[in-house]
Structures are given as structure tokens and as C-alpha cells.
Amino acid sequence: MKVGIPRGLYFYDYYPFWETFFQELGVEVVTSKPTDKEILNLGVEAAVDDACLPVKVFFGHVRFLKDQVDYLFIPRYVSEYRRTYICPKFLGLPEMIIFRLKAPKVLSHDLTAYQKGADFYRGVYVFGKKITPNGMKVMRATYTAWKKQKAYLQKKYLGYQPQDLIDGKQEYVPDLKKPLFAVVGHAYNINDRYASMDLIKKIRRFGGEVLTPDNVPFAEAVKKAGLLPKKPFWSFAIKNFGGSIYLAENYPLKGVINLNSFGCGPDSIITELTERYLKRKFSLPFLNLTIDEHTGEAGLVTRLEAFWDMTVERSFAGESNLPAHG
Amino acid sequence: MEKGVFLGVDVGSVSTNLVVINGEKEILKAIYLRTNGRPLVALKEGLRQIYDQIKEEEISGVGTTGSGRHLAALVLGADTVKNEITAHAVAASYLVPGVRTILEIGGQDSKLILLKDGVVTDFAMNTVCAAGTGSFLDQQAQRLNIPVEKFGEMALKAQNPVRIAGRCAVFAESDMIHKQQLGCNIEDILAGLCEALVRNFLNNLAKGKKLYDKIVFQGGVAANSGMREAFARILGTEIIVPPYFNVMGALGIALIAAFEWEKQPYKTMFKGFNVKDAELKTENFECQNCPNFCEVVKIYENYEVVGYLNDRCGRYSQMNNKKLAGIG
């Protein structure tokens, strides 16, 4: 049996877990290729037009995989952590795919940790039982997968980015002594090299290094999110707001770069709150980049270059002591 | 190595500007040309105009900026390639020491740059939409059959500026037409448009940022006295329009080239004035090496390939000189 995992949305958060889980159960795992023009075109053609870019990209990955596999793995992530929710588009994702793409072979079930963390694994167990009747085997696979996921998380806390660990041919070792930038946004945007116009690599090519909310343990992010008058109920909002505060407190950041996809509802509030808080508390420079289906990079490069000049190579404009012209 | 003159080139969407400064950073020549959609033609024309006064051997450094900076850099052989935000900030703090706020409105984009002690502390650029920039004013002037140079003058004559919706250029246009059909006179409509654009600029870019004095207004649109007046009225403070306001980007990059030379003298990569007569041609092709299908631009000078642009992976552009490839 072949199961296809589309390289979109929660891919970069949970891929090591699911890959190990299915392999332990004797299932072959196939992933789609990293996003490129073909995937994006496939997605934009098929997705509803008011969906955000990452959802369109996900559609593209599903269409790419659809005919190569026996089953498409599209779980319904409801809640990732206790007392939090995930953006509503995740809740409707399996149905969106099934009805929009006429894809009948979808492997889906609810995954929710809203009441308690262990409930998440109840969902995982249901997936396992769909594949094998042997409950013991499922439990063992879950345990091995969990260990793998834990190792993945530990690596991320050291400053590795998911794209380094999953997409990279050889492993990239981050150097946190370089000028540091926090890139804040959803993991599925930041790590998608095509959609984000290779933002991380661009910063590294300038000579900087990148930290993202992925590098912050969720428990720390929750503590920092307590600074808000009311705790946000989206886990992404907690990760982004709390994560950027944590990074600002613990690392000598040069600046914060926020990556939004156009039309993201929660981000429209959280970005604003994050920017205000960071400016007030740390007076950190903040750059907001919005991505959609653009392929022209000039706009992004200009802003990024100017941000780099402003935060790192401050010397250029430092010539104000020169006499005025004339 | 002797310090000669420095050439700064700003290839923008609407105008292509060239500035030559000498070693003491005095402006010898400033040229403002319309790009007319053909940056290479404009660039050649610009070189032709400075060719008489500047000797090729004198040039110690060349810098390019603006949205066409990579193209210009390949054709000219530039030593410094920088984004226009930095270039504008350097030029403004050079001409107006102690500047704190720069309002820059060009052809396709508008920028707000905040400085403190000559160092950029924050900037904002308009997002995907080009409403409220020079090309929109251009369009409207054309529709009303007024030369764009007269636009500001007429707006200043307004007695009661009408209110125009400024959020989007399409809304603004239909609002203007409604007001015009109601019989409002054209001066009032033009003044209303200026106010709408200023409001839009402040809403979109300033977003509650504190704008400190000295405020400098530059870019092509600063020529429009109606816009200057509207900024002064809405911000309630004096607006400085520096001399050479329309070539600030080119001046800034010339200064940067000079500053870099002062830090570390270099031998210029300038290819010489022959470029002005060279046959420059570009050709697009779709790279078939991966599914990204980048539209790569190939640039020819006298039938010889001088460089490539716009490939994501750098397969072609890494063949350009190293300094350019680094910017990708």
C-alpha cells in the first residue's frame, strides 16, 4: 500500500512523525516534490479563489500526488495543544479536497488535543487501525514515531529550520553567531521555498542567520503569550506572538521579519500586536512581507536589502556629519 | 589611485536618472529622463548627455539603483548596486543634514523612511497597489487633458477642495468623474485628489508612526506643488523639497559609490562610454531545467552576451560577475 503525504500546510510540523509511523506499519510513504511553478499552477486552478496561498499550494500538492498513490493522507487537525484551536481552514481541509478534487481515496480522521494531549494519540490509533487490525503494532509504531518526532523537535530548538532537516540534501548547520533575524510566520510559508521566494536562503546569502517560532518550545511561547490581555485561541497566534517575544528576549536579534500570506485573518491582528509589542519593549526593527502568487522577486528583494542595510550595515547613512551640499 | 568622479544611475519605472559628482561630492551633472518603458534606450540617452562633459578616464566608480538596477549594472559594469531605499536615505541626509522623515513618491512606488542621527531606523513601502503614485497622477492629468507639470499649479488655485476617495486608484477615478459631472470645477477636484493621495500615503505607510521634523519630500511627484501643499496642510508642518529632488536616488547611489571608494579605493568596472552607441538587446527564454520554468532574460551588447537576469537558482546569473550574483 502506498500513502501520499502532500508537502503543504502541516507537512513541516509533523512529517517525521507520520513518515516513521506509516513505515513502521509497513506502508510505503510518498511525498510530493517541493513546491514549484507546476504545483502552484495546479493548486490555483483547483482551489476556491478566496482561499489563502498555502491552501492553494496544498491543493497543488494533492493534485500532483493523487494518481500516484493508493491513499492520500489528509488528517483533520483540530487542535494541536490543550485549549487551543487551529485555523478553521484546517478543519474543512479533508472535505475541501474530497469535493473539490473528487478524490475518494482520502485517509482522514480527527486529531485533537483540546481536552488533553493524549487525545491526539487516540486519533493516531484510529489511523493505525485503518491499516492493520493489530493494535499492539499500532502502539509500537506510534511510540517509535513519537521518539523520532521528539528528536526532530530537539533539533529545531537548536536553531535548525524544518526545511534544513527535511528538504536539504546535506544538512545545513546554523551558525547563531552571525547577525540574527527572527522570521515570524507560519511554518508552511516560511519553509516553502517557492512561496516564500527562498526568504531564509536569501538572508543566509546576505550573511545572516535565521530563527523562527519553530525554534521555540511551545510551553515557552504560551508563557510569553500570557503578556496579551487575553490568550489567543489559535495555536499559530501563540507560536508567532509568544515565539517572537521569546526570541527577542533570548537572542541578540537584529530585526524581525514577518511573513504573511495575503488574506490571512488571524495574522492581520497578531502581526499588528506583535509589531507594537516588539517596538515598545525591545525597539526592534520590524519588516512585514506579504506573499501571494507573485513570482517577481524584485519587490521582496528591495525590501530585504534595505532592511539588511538598515539593521546590519548601518554605516552607509551614517555620514550625516558631512557638510551640507553647496 | 586618484579619486575622480562618480556616476550614479537610478533606473526607475517612470524615469531614468543620472548624476555625476566629483571627488568633493559636488554635483556636476544631473539628468532626468523618462524611461518610456525602455530602460536601456533611456540609459544610452543619459550616457550620451554626460559624454561631452565627463572624460571616461575620470570616472572612478559607478553605482546603480532603482528597480532596474541589476539590468543597468550588467550593461554599465557597476561597482555598487544598492536598493533605492538606502540610496534615497543617503542622498537626503547629505543634502538636508538632520533630516528625520523622508517622503518619497516615485512612479510606481512610494516610500516613507525614518532616520535618526543619519541612520535609517524604519521604512515602509507601498504594498502590491500603486495607487497614489506618480503614474496615477500622470494618468489623471492625461484624462483631464492637462500637462502634468501644470497639475500642481492648478490645484493651488482651488477654493474648496472636494473630497475624493483615495484608498484605491479605481475608486478615486470614479469619484473624480462623479464630482466632475456634478459640475465641481477642475481646480477643486485636482486639489481634492492631492489631499486624497496624501491621506492614502499616510494611512498606508505611516500607520501611526510618529513623523518628526525635518520632513523632506522627494521623488518625481515632489515637483507637484499641489502635493507639497497638501502634505504641509495635513501634517501641519514645513515640508522641505531639496534641490535635485527628482534625481535623489541617482545622487544617493553616486554618494555610496564615493563613500565606498573612500573606505577602500577600488578600480572601477565601468565599461566606458562605448555603451552609448552599442546595440543593446534583451531576449527572454523559459528555462527548461526544472519545473520552475523561470523566465530568464539574456542581455546582449553588440551580439555578445553580457549577462543573465531573473533565474531563481542562479544557473545563469552566476556567470555574471560575482558581486552581482551575490544579490541574486
UniProtKB/TrEMBL annotation, chain A:
Transmembrane segments: none annotated. InterPro entries: CoA_activase_DUF2229, Dehydratase_Activator_Redct. Residues 2-216 form the DUF2229 domain. Gene3D superfamilies: 3.40.50.11900. This is DUF2229 domain-containing protein.
Automatic annotation (TrEMBL), chain B:
InterPro entries: ATPase_BadF, ATPase_NBD, CoA_E_activase_dom, Dehydratase_Activator_Redct. Gene3D superfamilies: 3.30.420.40. The chain crosses the membrane at residues 243-261. The keyword rRNA processing does not apply. CDD domains: ASKHA_NBD_O66634-like_rpt2. Keywords: Iron, Iron-sulfur, Membrane, Metal-binding, Transmembrane, Transmembrane helix. One of its GO terms (molecular function) is metal ion binding. Residues 7-257 form the ATPase BadF/BadG/BcrA/BcrD type domain. Pfam families: BcrAD_BadFG (PF01869). Its cofactor is [4Fe-4S] cluster. PANTHER family: ACTIVATOR OF 2-HYDROXYACYL-COA-HYDRATASE, BIFUNCTIONAL PROTEIN [INCLUDES 2-HYDROXYACYL-COA DEHYDRATASE (N-TER) AND ITS ACTIVATOR DOMAIN (C_TERM)-RELATED. This is 2-hydroxyglutaryl-CoA dehydratase. It comes from Carboxydothermus islandicus.
